[in-house]
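#lab-general

N.A. 3:47 PM
ok so I finally got the sequence cleaned up, no stray characters, all 87 residues accounted for. can someone with queue access submit it? mine expired

B.Y. 3:52 PM
send it over

N.A. 3:53 PM
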Amino acid sequence: MTEELTLVKMFKYFDQANKGTVNCEQFVRVLEKTGMYYPLPTLKALFDQYDANGNGELDYRELAFLLSGNSNVLHEKPQQHQEPSVR
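B.Y. 4:20 PM
back already:
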């Protein structure tokens, strides 16, 4: 599977509403579902950092840039499981 196809599949997993964008709540929920528990302020800051146009949603290009390894935040050790922070 090519990197591009992998990124498309990952984007679709985040974009479960099939809107073509991912909001911060969806972003946090998917990361928590996959066992990645970080403090909510860290995840919001990460989301905002990659929301290049500042519209409060990540489009494919923005999320693909994050997921393709351009962020060190997701490679840090996650915290222990806590109650989900966004619902």
